[in-house]
Each structure stands twice: as structure tokens, then as C-alpha cells.
Amino acid sequence: MENHVVKTRRSAEEFPREEHLAFLIAQVAADPVAVPEDTKEMILNRIIDNAAVSAASVLRRPVTVARRQAEAHKVSTGGAKVFGIEGNYSAEWAAFANGVAVRELDFHDTFLAADYSHPGDNIPAILAAAQHKKVSGTDLIRGLATGYEIQVDLVRGMCLHEFKIDHVAHLGPSVAAGLGTMLKLPVDVIYQAIGQALHTTTATRQSRKGEISSWKAFAPAFAGKMGIEAVDRAMRGEGAPSPIWEGEDGVIAWLLGGPDREYIIPLPAQGEPKRAILDTFTKEHSAEYQSQAPIDLARRMREKISDLSQVEEIVLHTSHHTHYVIGTGSNDPQKFDPKASRETLDHSIMYIFAVALEDGTWHHEHSYAPERANRPETIELWHKISTVEDPEWTRRYHAEDPNEKAFGCRAEVRMKDGTVIVDELAIADAHPLGARPFARPQYEEKFRTLAEGVVTKAEQDRFLKAVDNIERLDDLGELNIVLEADVLAKAPSTPEGLL
């Protein structure tokens, strides 16, 4: 990897295009380096993972709305597939609908470093474009390897959250870069697409603050859609604001710390394989990734607490990010509100830890049900839980050594009789270094579990076979899943829109 210093440049300053971060990323995207076998295998795992969480969310209202928006953009030639239904739809709208399905339950892969990300958000957009252009499975894999690489590398070096910019600002450029790789576009075209994609996907982080709405799922889907549109315009000869990150009125100068701020972005050297996906991890539980280890910890600790009504106080010692984003450091009263939205509850570690302690399990629907959140005993326990930032957990959160990097916490449970029960867990059980790391069998099990009652067994089998044969498929549309009419009929009714 090569480290690149990225900072604001004055308009009068000599700053060759070849030194712009967008150009450096474009060069990585245009590098025809082969995809390593372990990277390829993980890409297939994540295609399965995305299908799993899409099956679990397909009948939810936001996903239904996005699907119906896409249905208004059916095409007679080309086009891409929309999860759950037959037909061909414009690639950007298919990417949007599928992106919402993937993101709705906060249940797919994650990468955490200087900033946050869900790199699996690259898949719906890049796959939709692949179906539209009828590229090979091999080229799709190459594009996805780049999408993951660029998003992870940006997340390693550039924190958006510090300045309350939503993390999808790293997704637009990564989608554009991935499409550039897949379509074998020239460096300059990819460069222009990256600039456009970033310029159209910078937004504030209010989508993940306070009373969180369904836009939390739509935001990354919108970024993927913008990535496709940016590449389309760039291929037609249109340019972008430049230098997009480093300009005097660019993203760093006005959104990310000002003209004196510097970032160091690592990128693969020419000829270096793209392996960043191997540093990402998926979720066993449908909740914010920083809740994964605490859920596993709560399940373990409940065996040591005979009567939860006798709990006086629970303090979770954890990282800066966990404390301020999903903990009491956020100062969001909604995180203690039993009437809060599902999107808010899955960003409340206090709620999540309480329910995991009580139930000893976690379910993507039942654990968030209004009747579950409103149990009096749950509310009482929930309100006894708080978080504090611990410098050691913050250090481990940012550690570069994978054996040190951790997203867990130490829980101190003080009982009414004065007894204190303490336990900690650094990484989730499903993490590559955890007690039960996910590999292909676990991804397939997650898919089968979430698809049960939604996707027929025959369709499940067909899809998994298509994933295994991805490089030999004549039609990447086979990577879509179609639901039976009686299942789709269970989707909620929604008002008519504009389109």
C-alpha cells in the first residue's frame, strides 16, 4: 500500500491532476490486476449475505416503496433486475431499490476505522450496472473488489463523522471506481465520475441522529444510484468539479476540517491486488455493528445474573464511537423511548443490551417489535444502562493490528445488594477472529434462515448455485431472486407517488 497526503490546495497553487486523490483512485480502478482467490471467495459470500438481508426486508414498507419506484422505470432493452420481481428496469433505479433492501435492516457487512461504512452497499449498484451492460461474472468480481477496496481505504484515512457528514460520502466514489474497473474505462473517465459521485453524495449525518427515519436505508441506495449516473455522464464526456477533495472550495476545505486539515489515504500500488474486503466483517445480529459483541456479551452474562429485577445499574465501558453514536454520549433521548422507530432502537446500545440480557437471543424483527420495546420490565432495565468512553477501548477501535482491533465493551453490572458482576468481550462471535467466525456455511445458513417463508426452497437452491457458478453465467440476472405472487401480496400498500 502507498500512503497519500491529501489536503486543501489554493487555486493559484500548482497541483497536477495526477496528484489529485480522485485521479489516484482512478488509477487504482484502471489497474487490470488479477483478483486473488480469497478476495473472490469473500465477494461471493457477500453477494449471498446481501441476498439474505434483502429477503428479510423485502416486505417492509421502505423496501416496498423503493421497489415500486423502480417498477415505474421498466425498460424494454437492457436494464437490471429488482429483488423479488420479474422484469428489467433501468439500472440506476434497480440499484436504488436493491440498495434499500440490502440496507433496511442494518444487517450486512461493515468496516470501521477512522470512519464507518457498510461496503456491501457497493454490490447493488455495481451488480445492476453489470446486468445492464451484460458483462461477465469475472468483470463483476473485479468491479466489486475495487468498490470494496476504495471504500475501505477512504474509511481508513478520512473521518466524515467528526464533521457530521454521512458516511455515504465515501460510497459514491467507491461505486464510481468499481464501475470504472468493471467496464474497463479510461483513467480520466473514472476520475471525472469519482468527482461527480462525491459532489452529489455529501450530506449531513442527521439521517443517523435523533429520531432516525427510514432515510437511513435510502441514503446509501441513493449514493449508489448517483454513482451509476455519474459514470454515465462521465462516459458521455461530462466533467466534474476538480480537485473535488483538495480544491479551495472543495470537500476538505468546507466539510472536513478546513484548509489546514491533512488526511493520509492508503491505496494499493500499481500491480498490487485489491484485498480490502478481507478486512471487513458481516453481522450475525440485525443491529449496528458496534452492538454485535455487546449482544454476545449480554447473552453470556445473563447466565451470571439470576434476577434482572435486582440490577441497580449497568455501565458499558466502550470506545468513543460507540459511546457517542449509539450510547448515552449521543445525548439522544430517543434512544430511551419505547415508542422510537426501529431505526432509532438499532442505534441504542442501551436498548439492545437490555433485550439481549432478557431474551438471551436477538431477532431482526421480534427484538424490535413495539410490544417488545414497551414491556415495563424492559423499560426499567433499559433505563438503568449507560455508557462511558474508555481510552483503551477507543485505542483498540482504531488499532491497525487485526489482533488488537476491537469493537466491544466491558460491562459492569451493580446489583442492589452491592454485588458487582464484570465481564467483557472484544469482538463478536461471528468476527473472523471470534468464537464462531463466519465462512461459506455460515453465510448460506444466514441466507436460508432469513429466506425461510419468503423465498421458495427451489429458488434458494437455484440462487446459491448461480453464485457458485458466477464466472460461468451467461446472464448475471440469475443472481436475482424472484418471489411467489402470494408472498409479494403481503407487502404493505403505499400511497401513489409522482412518477
From TrEMBL:
EC number: 4.2.1.79
Pfam family, one: MmgE_PrpD_C
GO molecular function: 2-methylcitrate dehydratase activity
Domain MmgE/PrpD C-terminal: 285-471
Class of this enzyme: lyase
Ranges for domain MmgE/PrpD N-terminal: 20-262
InterPro entries: 2-Methylcitrate_Dehydratase (IPR053420), MmgE/PrpD_sf (IPR036148), MmgE/PrpD_sf_1 (IPR042183), MmgE/PrpD_sf_2 (IPR042188), MmgE_PrpD (IPR005656), MmgE_PrpD_C (IPR045337), MmgE_PrpD_N (IPR045336)
Keywords: Lyase
Family according to the record: Belongs to the PrpD family.
Name of this chain's protein: 2-methylcitrate dehydratase
Species, as recorded: Corynebacterium felinum
